[in-house]
Specification:
Length: about 170
């Protein structure tokens, strides 16, 4: 089964089995539409989970799963990863892609020069920053002025690098 990371399970919240979900790009309603998830623990253990409820809480999401009704049972899921099959995910919409779809894309300049591939994505308050690994590491802001084209079929991202960006990273 292919698997997409939805988020990381944090510590329990309250006494009724609710948990923090960190790094989730989906909204509460999108999570509730999926309902069926896979959990992977830090030691490789796996478990199927059915989502009962999700709600936003600042930069995190709070989630509740069937059969997890106490703080103690929720604590067993702490530090695990929550995933789903890619076919279950809702369409990201026109001109939008999920982070997992961008990972590994080859990044090129408008002139066709290959800079490397996306190794990580750093979430910031304003826009993502793409960590591009090539001859050297580059941090490329994911703004519309810089990211000119993303072709998921060809697995490429074309960027218009701001003057001096490569020099500043040297």
């Amino acid at each position: 089964m292919s698997w997409v990371l939805i988020g990381r399970i944090g510590r329990p919240h309250g006494l009724q089995g609710e948990l923090h979900l960190d790094g989730c790009a989906l909204s509460a309603s999108e999570l509730e539409t999926l309902r069926e998830f896979s959990w992977r623990g830090p030691r490789g253990e796996q478990r199927a989970l059915e989502l009962l409820a999700a709600r936003p809480a600042n930069a995190r999401m709070l989630v509740t799963f069937a059969g997890i009704g106490s703080r103690e049972s929720a604590a067993e899921l702490t530090n695990g990863e929550l995933g789903a099959e890619p076919s279950q995910l809702p369409d990201a919409g026109p001109g939008v892609a999920y982070h997992f779809q961008l990972m590994g894309l080859e990044v090129r300049t408008l002139e066709g020069r290959v800079l490397g591939s996306i190794a990580d994505i750093i979430a910031t308050g304003a826009h993502p920053v793409y960590v591009v690994q090539g001859v050297r590491e580059l941090l490329i802001p994911g703004t519309p002025a810089i990211v000119q084209r993303v072709d998921l079929q060809a697995r490429t991202m074309t960027v218009a690098l701001p003057r001096g960006l490569e020099d500043a990273m040297a």
